[in-house]
Write a structure and sequence with these properties.
Chain A: Its main location: membrane. The structure holds 3 protein chains of 3 kinds. By secondary structure, chain B is α+β, with helices and mostly antiparallel strands. Chain B is built from 16 helices and 23 strands. A 7-stranded mixed β-sheet of chain B has the order 10-11-12-1-13-21-14, with helices on both faces. In chain C, helix 5 runs antiparallel to helix 11 and helix 7 crosses helix 9. Chain C is globular. The chains are: A mainly alpha, B alpha+beta, C mainly alpha. At the B-C interface, strand 9, strand 12, helix 7 and helix 13 of B face helix 5, helix 7 and helix 12 of C.
């Protein structure tokens, strides 16, 4: 690809964007590709992407990156009620109220936050998708029933629903993930159904039907894949929500009972008691949550803008 | 048994302190303005931050600290607690005599005392209350309603299967009540200092249908009396209860038989979050609160608040459940004494006491605090020795044993200020010694107390604040025989006939000196058997603003606010 | 219009039915079932049997559901296990506080959010624009309870400007009529009590309003940006209409339509957030009661409160729909 070609493509791209549609075929670029290009030029998207990638890298290599064991209570014997040693040689961010290395706990904690975010979002996507596909593909009374159910789920404020589920399942990390996932289900169900409906009457779906292709093949082979981009956008945004919601549930005492296992939300709510002694114990995990949530939000929003023709001007 | 959360609160500094305090209080009053003319001095309103709402205000149905905290100001019993101490002292009774067989108590009552409704306090009123408790029926006989009556007296008139040790109460004249028991117990008469045995106005009890409980055992709905008209003889009268905002207001009883309190009124305001309580004090919207976090003792002092540290009169322990309890998952490994010893050796009590508990806390060698008669110097001790722990575990062939470790959440107990931190440290100790831990966190009330008492935990954190100065109140509560030669389900229904016998003997021993020796023997037996690891005795604290005078911390956590005043 | 309202009301019925079904299932699924939930874990088998018989839990499921529904319609959710009082009574005692708080939060979010979003859009690309965009992103990403703690630490504890907990200074002995404290103070002419109650709303209200604020800023900004480029605005400008008139009549009015729908949707967020903020600020509303109920495993309260809050949420959205219908005639037809 020459530099010249690049500029040209970009010009076509811009032109296409202004017209509100992207020409497909030989000379043009696919929708996804053009979206990707727009993303690359968007500083907001880059910021988001950098944060997210950094977060993923830290989570992936946490055991290698953490300078100390996150569970060992190194400085416990130096701790007195009301006095927590600050940062020092070997403990750059200091230690928590039980003498564990804060930096290592933050690093390793990224894994738990990522795990909670990803698992609950995936669960939400899968179940929501199943419902949405059911409604979108069949229409008629199936659609009515499923969507009413989704509306009912939507009529319970999110956190309240998560609380109900958590109370039902008891206090453990899986309950936490499921509780968050359930609040995501209706969102994805609506989204999927909406975008499937939009495509059901599209030209290619009509054409496929006219060719006598079975409904299931149309749905799973064409309509569904084409509905995925909004799902990806929403999933990115949901990851941010999930991480914040996990912190809220931890605060409400519905988090992971294994307090030794580092998790940002639990670390944050645990640190409230030491706010006046060592505010950094709360500030660092809070910053981690905020920055990562921000990263996913920035990325998600720019993805949405990139994929939405309305924003292409 | 620790059926319900708090249990009682404690009291106890030395008599010397009490005298000093009285001197202080009176000098404060002298220096105050408007003392002359015999008019009551206007002492303002004290706002005190409580950790929870009272369940209701009829102490006969109370068993938790927040209920008793308020009830103690409104109601009085035949006996009360020594100011700042743990010994029972006369209150509504001026004194009492015991018959030689220890079964008949003659109480000489204070005269000229009136209930808040203007009716007279007399021997008939005393007997009315005793008969009321003995004749409870239906829901009122459930342990969740009348826990303390049952702990001390056993059963009711309506429960012939569970006989009561209460026989009768007779008003021989206006100011003499004779109470007869069917057997001697260490609990009587000390227990009469508990708010649960307060003497309340017979007229008000009847008028507002005090015994009319409804709902179910675990969701009791209380009577109009208990919610709106509690009527005692105490220094304060009940004024109002704003349930939406969790505010109970009590006002000075102008006709109090003793020295009328300086304060016009006290508002107990519920602020369940400990950080919020601290910040509200700092912001000046409350004048004091209970359950100060150990981490805050120093910083609050530095800011000019008075942190009132109570003498430790409690025990925190790690209970074992070796799994004889039907219907629970047994962890038979804990039946091996070596495994129990391994756990005891694995726990670093010194570090726990130094790092997690307030200054003044001490590591426990047994299940009673050292200030209680019956504490034994020569019990078997288990020092921190992880190598020994691993070795014992190896000998028992139990390396890697998985223990379900139960701990409570969102609660602060006088003996356990920060359960989460305590859990994490012990957890790490046990992991280091070669155990595998499966943590289970439950909210304190009711889930945690229920689960633990039902024997669902392998090991669990729990504790106790003494109700009065008697060893049976500690070790009898934990380890007395429940039935069929078995201890409570909380400790895995273990069978240790020697321990049971020693405890029963001591409880029925009328002579205090003999009793002390028998308690010591029981403590030795218990620490040999090791049904759990005693961890610490911790001094809980209250805090009040600089201008609050005269609040005497009680080791029983049974503070009385009648001596409190606010200066400008 | 009437037909539109009636239709929307009718659409409520299946939602409410479904909601009750869901909560019924939830109660059934609790460990030990409803009897244990109501009687506690220590209930004896006899007590459970008695309870089951009393409430017809030995009957077929559909009969049970109908009974449950019958009681729910009469707002009978039993008694709280913690306080022994009727759940409904507690709800109505506490709801006014939550309504006051959410109203304050909403007014704060709207009052600050719309002007800020508008200005940001008008000065597209300026520092004000970037600041409000970044600020609104941060607002959404910050855990509410942490923000609440920070606000309290700063404004109530360190600076001492505002009260940091409760609904009313306890030493003020105010007369209660409606349990809306601000309103009560005004009605009884106890203006100091009203002012005090209002001050108690400020910090929790701001904490609670931050997320809606962030969202409203973003939506307002986006929709103003959209509208400025619409043909009718260009036409109006070209026509030579005064800038102020164009802004008022064309830009603001049209831009507010999408904003008003989001405001309805924010109610759910506010009710969720109230659990966290009320807890941090020890504010005696519905949210802090739910927090307490979680810890006391007070299922009667959880079930009743969640159902009633969901109904409130549905009703608020209905009101928003109806008002939207009034604003935008197109909606009614659809």
């Amino acid at each position: 690809m020459t530099a010249m070609g690049d500029v040209k493509r970009r010009r076509i791209d811009e032109l296409a964007a202004r017209a509100g549609q992207v020409p497909e075929g030989e000379g043009g670029v696919s929708l996804t590709k053009s979206a990707f290009r727009r993303l690359r030029r968007n500083p907001v998207a880059i910021t988001g992407a950098v944060i997210v990638v950094l977060f993923l890298l830290v989570a992936a290599f946490a055991p290698l990156l953490a300078p100390k064991d996150p569970l060992t209570q190194y400085l416990l014997s130096e701790i007195r009620p009301g006095t927590i040693p600050g940062s020092r040689e070997g403990f750059p961010l200091g230690v928590d109220n039980l003498g564990r290395d804060l930096l290592s706990r933050l690093i390793v904690g990224s894994r738990q936050s990522l795990l909670i975010g990803v698992v609950s979002t995936l669960l939400g996507v899968v179940v929501g998708m199943a419902l949405g596909v059911l409604a979108g593909a069949f229409g008629g009374w199936v659609d009515t029933v499923v969507m009413r159910f989704v509306d009912i789920l939507l009529s319970i404020p999110g956190l309240l629903m998560a609380i109900s589920i958590s109370v039902l399942l008891g206090q453990n990390q899986y309950a936490l993930m499921i509780a968050i996932a359930v609040t995501q289900v209706p969102v994805f169900a609506r989204l999927l159904r909406g975008s499937m409906l939009a495509q059901r009457d599209s030209d290619y779906a009509l054409a496929a039907r006219a060719l006598g292709i079975r409904r299931s093949r149309i749905v799973f082979g064409h309509v569904l894949p084409n509905s995925l981009s909004p799902v990806i956008v929403q999933a990115t945004l949901s990851l941010a929500t999930a991480i914040i919601e996990a912190a809220a549930l931890s605060f409400l005492g519905l988090g992971d009972p294994d307090l030794a296992r580092p998790e940002w939300g639990a670390m944050l709510s645990n640190a409230q008691a030491f706010l006046s002694i060592r505010p950094e114990l709360a500030v660092y995990p809070a910053l981690c949550i905020i920055v990562v949530a921000l990263g996913f939000t920035l990325l998600g929003e720019s993805l949405r803008e990139a994929l939405d023709p309305k924003f292409r001007r | 048994m620790q059926r319900r959360p708090p249990r009682v609160l404690a009291a106890g500094a030395a008599a010397l302190t009490a005298v000093t305090l009285a001197a202080c209080a009176s000098s404060d009053r002298d220096s105050g303005e408007g003392e002359g003319g015999g008019e009551a001095q206007s002492g303002g309103t004290l706002v005190f931050g409580a950790a929870g709402d009272p369940a209701m205000l009829d102490p006969a149905f109370g068993s938790d600290g927040e209920t008793f905290r308020v009830a103690r100001q409104i109601h009085e019993g035949l006996l009360g607690n020594e100011l700042g101490g743990t010994e029972p002292v006369p209150e509504l009774a001026e004194d009492y005599e015991v018959s030689d067989d220890g079964l008949e108590y003659t109480f000489n009552l204070r005269q000229g005392v009136q209930f808040h409704d203007g009716t007279d306090f007399n021997a008939e009123a005393v007997c009315f209350n005793f008969d009321r408790w003995y004749n409870f029926e239906g829901l009122a006989t459930s342990p969740s309603a009348s826990y303390y009556y049952q702990a001390v007296f056993g059963g009711f008139a309506s429960t012939p299967d569970t006989p009561s040790i209460y026989e009768s109460c007779e008003a021989t004249d206006e100011s003499t009540a004779v109470i007869r028991l069917t057997q001697v117990t260490s609990k009587f008469p000390s227990a009469l200092a508990l708010p649960a045995f307060s003497i309340q106005s017979p007229e008000a009890l009847q008028q507002y249908d005090a015994d009319n409980l409804s709902g179910s055992e675990d969701a009791l709905s209380y009577s109009e009396y208990a919610l709106e008209h509690p009527t005692g003889t105490g220094p304060f009268r009940f004024e109002s209860w704003d349930r939406g905002n969790g505010e109970v207001t009590i006002v000075r009883n102008e006709d109090y038989w003793g020295e009328a309190p300086a304060l016009d009124s006290i508002i107990f305001r519920t602020i369940s979050d400990q950080n919020t309580r601290r910040q509200e004090l700092q912001a000046g919207s409350i004048d004091g609160y209970d359950f100060v976090a150990p981490a805050d003792y120093q910083s609050l002092e530095d800011e000019g608040f008075q942190v009132l540290v109570r003498d430790p009169f409690n025990i925190l322990y790690l209970g074992f459940n070796g799994g004889n309890v039907p219907g629970t998952n047994a962890n038979l490994a804990l039946q091996d004494p070596r495994v129990r010893q391994a756990i005891a050796h694995a726990i670093d009590r010194e570090t726990i006491v130094n790092s997690l508990l307030p200054e003044g806390a001490e590591a426990a060698t047994q299940f009673v605090p050292p200030t209680v008669d019956g504490w034994a110097e020569d019990v078997t001790t288990y020092d921190y020795d992880p190598d020994r722990a691993r070795q014992l575990l190896q000998e028992a062939g139990a390396e890697g044993t998985t223990l379900r470790f139960y701990y409570p959440t969102e609660v602060s107990r006088p003996y356990l200020p920060d359960p989460a931190a305590m859990f994490q440290v012990i957890n790490q100790n046990l992991v280091d010694a070669g155990f595998t831990i499966e943590p289970v966190a439950l909210p304190w009330n009711p889930d945690y107390t229920n689960a633990v008492q039902a024997g669902q935990a392998d090991i669990h954190l729990l504790g106790w604040t003494g109700d009065y100065n008697d060893a049976y109140n500690f070790i009898g509560t934990f380890f007395a025989e429940q039935s069929n030669n078995q201890a409570s389900a909380e400790f895995g229904s273990f069978s240790a006939p020697e321990i049971f016998a020693a405890l029963a003997e001591a409880d029925a021993e009328p002579d205090p000196a003999n009793r002390t020796e028998q308690y010591q023997e029981a403590n030795r037996l218990i620490m040999d058997y090791l049904p759990g690891v005693p961890i610490s005795h911790s001094p809980p604290a209250l805090v009040v603003a600089e201008n609050v005078q005269g609040l005497e911390p009680s080791p029983l956590t049974a503070e009385v606010f009648s001596t409190v005043s606010i200066t400008d | 219009m009437l037909r539109f309202i009636v239709r929307r009301l009718l659409q409520l019925i299946p939602i409410l039915l479904g909601l009750s079904l869901l909560l019924f299932a939830w109660l059934r699924a609790l460990p030990g079932g409803p009897a244990q939930a109501a009687l506690g874990e220590r209930a004896t088998p006899e007590a459970i049997a008695r309870y089951n018989e009393l409430f017809g839990l030995d009957q077929p499921l559909y009969v049970q559901y109908l009974r449950f529904l019958g009681r729910a319609v009469q707002l009978d959710f039993g008694n709280s296990a913690r306080t022994g009082r009727a759940v409904t009574e507690e709800f109505f005692e506490r709801m006014p506080g939550t309504i006051e708080l959410t109203l304050f939060a909403m007014l704060f979010a709207i009052g600050v959010g719309i002007p800020l979003g508008y200005l940001a859009a008008r000065r597209h690309g300026s520092w004000l624009d970037s600041t409000s965009v970044i600020g609104s992103l941060l607002g959404v990403a910050t855990p509410v309870f942490f923000l609440a703690y920070l606000l309290r630490l700063l404004f109530a504890v360190e600076l001492g400007w505002l009260p940091g907990s409760g609904r009313q200074e306890v030493r003020i002995d105010a007369t209660r009529i409606t349990n809306f404290y601000v309103l009560d103070g005004l009605l009884t002419r106890e203006f100091d009590a009203a002012w005090d109650a209002f001050l108690h709303l400020v910090l929790p209200g701001i904490a609670l309003g931050t997320i809606p604020l962030a969202i409203i800023v973003r939506i307002t900004r986006a929709s103003v940006l959209d509208v400025v480029n619409e043909d009718y605005v260009r036409t109006a400008n070209a026509k030579g209409l005064a800038t102020a008139t164009v802004r008022r009549r064309h830009i603001v009015r049209n831009a507010l339509l999408p904003v008003s729908t989001t405001i309805g949707l924010q109610t759910g967020l506010l009710l969720s957030g109230a659990v966290l903020t009320e807890t941090v600020f020890a504010f005696g509303g519905v949210g802090s009661a739910i927090f307490d109920a979680i810890f006391a495993r007070d299922f009667a309260v959880l079930q009743g409160f969640i159902l009633m809050l969901a109904v409130v949420y549905v009703l608020v959205n209905l009101l928003v729909d109806i008002s939207y219908g009034l604003l935008d005639p197109r909606v009614r037809v659809r």
